[in-house]
């Protein structure tokens, strides 16, 4: 899908590589930046994913990690999140035959570290700076990193 979309903009200098985000096999300290969207939550070990990400980046490089934001239980925002994941996202996905691609979302979010824990994991992984910022009224979150 990404390859097909990129073909629409052939001037983008892209090359494609499929691999394990926990063990990419890419050289250390080679990259000036990285982004990950809705990936960290899906890794078996998000802390290990951040260690691998840090290994790839040059000192001073920046990275941004976007994902759902896990909120305090019982807050209005958390209840709203549960509502739209169950009643909107999964329901609509089921109608277009994609139920199994979205049904796991709520459970994966319950295992996902909260923003402040992501910041700590990133600092433990060796990032010089890590700041988690809520987006979309707290429903999503961006982990902003400097190597
Ligand atoms: C919600 S999808 C997000 C995909 C893409 N980033 C996007 O925004 O469309 C999460 C993906 O992470 C992949 N994934 C889980 N663990 C992985 C790993 N260790 N290495 C690479 N991909 C992994 C899953 O196979 C799944 O395709």
From TrEMBL:
Name one process (GO BP) from the record. Answer: methylation
Q: Which domain of life is it from?
A: Bacteria
* A GO MF term: methyltransferase activity
Q: What single Pfam family name could you report for this chain, choosing any that match?
A: Ubie_methyltran
EC numbers listed for it are: 2.1.1.-
Q: Which InterPro entries does this UniProt record tie to the protein?
A: SAM-dependent_MTases_sf (IPR029063), UbiE/COQ5_MeTrFase (IPR004033)
Q: Which UniProt keywords apply?
A: Methyltransferase, Transferase
Official protein name in the record: Putative menaquinone biosynthesis methlytransferase
Q: Which organism is it from?
A: Prochlorococcus marinus (strain MIT 9313)
């Amino acid at each position: 899908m990404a390859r097909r979309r990129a073909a629409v903009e052939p001037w983008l200098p892209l090359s494609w590589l499929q691999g394990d985000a926990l063990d990419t096999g890419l050289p250390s300290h080679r990259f000036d930046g990285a982004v990950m969207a809705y990936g960290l939550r899906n890794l078996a070990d998000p802390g290990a994913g951040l260690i691998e990400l840090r290994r790839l980046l040059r000192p001073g490089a920046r990275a941004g990690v976007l994902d759902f934001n896990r909120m305090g239980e019982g807050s209005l925002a958390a209840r709203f999140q549960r509502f739209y994941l169950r009643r909107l996202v999964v329901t609509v996905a089921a109608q277009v035959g994609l139920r199994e691609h979205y049904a796991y979302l709520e459970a994966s979010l319950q295992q996902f570290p909260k923003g402040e824990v992501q910041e700590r994991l990133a600092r433990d992984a060796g990032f010089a700076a890590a700041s988690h910022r809520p987006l979309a009224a707290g429903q999503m979150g961006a982990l902003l990193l400097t190597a």
